[in-house]
Amino acid sequence: MKHLVAPSVLAADFSNLKKDFDLVNQSNADWFHVDVMDGQFVPNISFGMSIIKTMHGMAEKPLDVHLMILQPEKYIEQFRECGAEVITVHYEACPHLHRTIQQIHATGAQAGVALNPHTPVSVLENIIEYIDLVCIMSVNPGFGGQKFIYETLPKVKKLKDMIIVKNSKAKIEIDGGVGLQNAESLLKAGADVLVAGSAVFKADDPLDVISRLKNIGKDTLFV
Ligand code: DX5
Ligand code: ZN
What we know:
The chain is about 30% helix and about 20% strand. By secondary structure, the chain is α/β, with parallel strands linked by helices. D-xylitol-5-phosphate binds next to strand 2, strand 8 and helix 7.
């Protein structure tokens, strides 16, 4: 499968979101990555439903909504109504993860599970068959523009092996500090979706960065 690129709108220009959404619409990116933070699960607050609804109105590509919030099960249906196509909850925030995954699927959305940097991929062994996406956090969630944690690479390889052994359809998404400097190693390790915030929106030429991220490995078969 050709990998996907998901620019993270957390790094977009909020004084002119339309401009950045149009840019991504015109690019060969695949999804909009949308970070929701509650100031409880993570030490930062981002935005909620009304902004996501507005984003959905501007987006011509699916919204990949990453919930960095406690008790996400309280809001799944609302995020779906706002236009979320993929809904990702944190393993660390879900004591009844299996039920929460079922709840996401019942809305018709794809279900993702995110793992903080300290959480081993082995915690997913009994749920990997039921999920559509695993988001491996390669920074501590809460802020854009942080440094990539290199211990992520062996985690991606382990997860890829687990997915193959369990015959799961889950995509592996990498979130945090991703850019042209590490994208190729991540893809070689087994990544399917590259989330990039600062690397795209803080670049002089965001369209060029998106297209370079998208074209990595185009002429090489490395997975
Ligand atoms: C971090 C968020 C990321 C963030 C990535 O908590 O989940 O999606 O926007 O930003 P960069 O690519 O700048 O690290
Ligand atoms: Zn994210």
